[in-house]
Specification:
The protein is mainly α. It has two domains: 225 residues, no CATH class; 172 residues, no CATH class. Helix content is 81%, strand content 0%. The protein contains 18 helices and no strands. The protein starts with a helix and ends with a helix. The mean pLDDT is 90.
């Protein structure tokens, strides 16, 4: 890490160090997610594991609702405001996010209490949903402040440590033969711990005081600005989880558990693509102003990403049986065939991620919203036809169709925006 700081330009050195910490955190989270999934899959039978995966899917569909006033709005506001206004900026964003998070949590608990889902799923989701109170109001707000300084190390380091501790606690609960519902509360504990550490860090950097306060004008600005981006992100996450939401109404939880086991590993593989795109975006896309150079960079990035995804998918396809058996155990052998097909989704996902960089570069919020609305609609239509006929494979077809639709919108926008 010291090598990165040895630069004549402190901004470049800080950015490079930040990228390294981001990479380490992502790799740690991926490794911990795989370890925890393996532990729970072996401890729970496929039916209960399917319910656990479904509860997590529901949480990931609910969570984007709390992403109001995203980083694309909050970070520039912090940067462009005077230092003595930081307390008002963060305090107003906190009030907005906490208010939305409380409403989301109460509605989730009411939905569980009215028995609109399986009792076991509801018991798991009850604990998982508490993370909503900590993720965006505390962690998200302070992380935006850290991003404004290009210094995410405190948050990333805390996330890595708590993730490892969570894995150890999952192992302990497994050894104690605890009930399935108890695991959800570990995720809430992790979020609370990260939030507490970051609040203490912020206070230490500000003379032992939090200093946040509410500003009505800023609150109104945050509530309205970024709404289109927010809706686009909600559509995107709904698209990514639509396969499991629709499968749950067509197959048993045991079958859903097998499908989810394969998709969990596949999503961690695709996460590497997203990490790659986030890493290279500033240098090769965001900072490039010359159209011809940007076009050349995009062609190279598309080719490199496609080649990497195809090579990686081929290896994972060949090793699918071994990987599934090692991570999840013999009870999940049937998931290997689903995994073999699922890994090839990384190719359209990677191509879409690179194309999306241009959409973000030019802040084309309506294009982003239209893209994920189209992907969601296409995936839903395909799933309606394919899932009843092909079960889990039908859900993969729906995802592939949705990615293709999203990538098509990206290509159309790139052609329109970068036309000579």
């Amino acid at each position: 890490m010291k090598v990165l700081t040895c630069s004549d330009n402190p901004d470049v050195a800080r950015a490079l160090a930040n990228i390294v910490w981001l990479g380490l955190e992502r790799l740690t989270q991926i490794a911990v997610a795989i370890v925890i999934s393996g532990l729970l899959a072996r401890y729970l039978d496929p039916d209960v594991f399917g319910k656990w995966q479904y509860a997590n899917t529901l949480l990931l569909v609910i969570a984007p609702i709390t992403w109001v006033c995203g980083a694309e709005i909050l970070v520039p506001t912090i940067v462009h405001r005077a230092k003595d206004e930081t307390g008002a900026v963060l305090g107003s964003a906190f009030v907005l996010r906490m208010g939305v998070s409380v409403v989301a949590l109460v509605l989730t608990w009411m939905w569980i209490g009215l028995s609109f889902t399986d009792p076991t799923v509801g018991a798991m989701l009850a604990g998982l949903a508490v993370t909503l109170l900590f993720r965006e109001p505390f962690i998200g707000v302070i992380n935006a402040w850290l991003q404004s300084m290009t210094y995410n190390k405190p948050q990333l380091l805390t996330s890595m440590v708590t993730a490892i501790c969570k894995a150890a606690l999952v192992y302990a609960l497994v050894r104690m033969s605890m009930g399935a519902a108890s695991f959800g509360w570990l995720w809430a504990l992790e979020a609370a711990a990260i939030g507490a550490v970051l609040v203490l860090y912020y206070m230490r950097r500000h003379g032992g005081k939090l200093g946040w306060h509410f500003d009505r004008a800023l609150f109104k600005h945050f509530a309205s600005a970024g709404t289109v981006f927010w809706l686009g992100l909600i559509c995107m996450y709904l698209f990514l989880k639509l396969d499991r939401l629709m499968l749950a109404h067509r197959v048993s939880f045991a079958e859903l558990g097998l499908y989810s086991a394969a998709q969990q590993l596949n999503e961690n593989w695709i996460a590497l693509v997203l990490m790659l795109s986030q890493t290279i975006a500033p240098t090769f896309v965001y900072r490039v102003q010359e159209t011809a150079l940007l076009k050349r960079n995009l062609v190279r990035l598309f080719a490199m990403t496609a080649a990497l995804m195809i090579a990686g998918a081929a290896v994972l396809d060949a090793l699918a049986g071994f990987i599934i058996a090692r991570v999840f155990g013999p009870n999940y052998a049937q998931a290997a065939e689903i995994f073999r097909w699922a890994v090839w989704l990384s190719v359209p996902a990677g191509v879409e991620a690179i194309g999306n960089l241009v959409v973000l570069k030019y802040q084309a919020k309506y294009v982003l919203l239209a893209k994920w609305l189209l992907a969601l609609a296409v995936a839903f239509a395909v799933n309606l036809f394919a899932i009843p006929r092909f079960s889990g494979y039908g859900a993969l077809i729906g995802l592939a169709a949705g990615y293709a639709a999203a990538a098509s919108v990206n290509f159309y926008y790139i052609r329109f925006r970068l036309r000579a």
